[in-house]
Amino acid sequence: MAEKQINPFVRLGLEIGPIVAFFVAYVKLKGQTFTIGGTDYDGFILVTAGFIPLILLSTFLMWKLSGHISKMQIVTAVLVVVFGGLTVWLNDDRFIKMKPTMIYTLFAGILGFGLLRGESYLKYVMEGMMPLQHEGWLILTRRLMFFFALLAILNEVIWRTMSTDAWVNFKTFGLTVAIFVFFMTQNGLFQKYAIEEKNG
Description:
Elements: H1 8-29, E1 33-36, E2 39-42, H2 43-66, H3 71-90, H4 94-116, H5 121-126, H6 134-161, H7 164-184, H8 187-193
Antiparallel strand pairs: 1-2
Helix pairs in contact: 1-2, 1-7, 2-3, 3-4, 4-6, 6-7, 6-8
């Protein structure tokens, strides 16, 4: 099925809406304890429980509206269900905090495997957005692989050594800003290796 164009604001809302909702809910419920079925859960656990159906709903709506969801979105949704589910089931916030580590390690590994084969798997995901020469794709993929590996390490350091507040801020704002800045700093590469569209 061909991907349908959807309103960019709707797309943005579906992509970052669940993360914003997670942050807002955490701010409201942090420090509180709720007793459910005789078991005490802190606010972070309940927020995580709400985040799981929210990410599934946003992924479904993205597919329904555009007729397409990327493999990255599918992997992210699956890992949210797995690690979020373990967090709630075991009443242990370490699992959801490890999720970004798993995601970025997986993405770095997939990109690295492709590079070993002389291919850019990133090209298959993003080619429609920015056509580049083969060499450009390889360079961008190599940079993104190292960037994802760095984010995985950074997430581990932050959740293991800092407070939950610090980790939530990092996940909500730090990761988003870091990815935005990364692609902004690749402007020179995009210009150098861009494939110009032929007129007529």
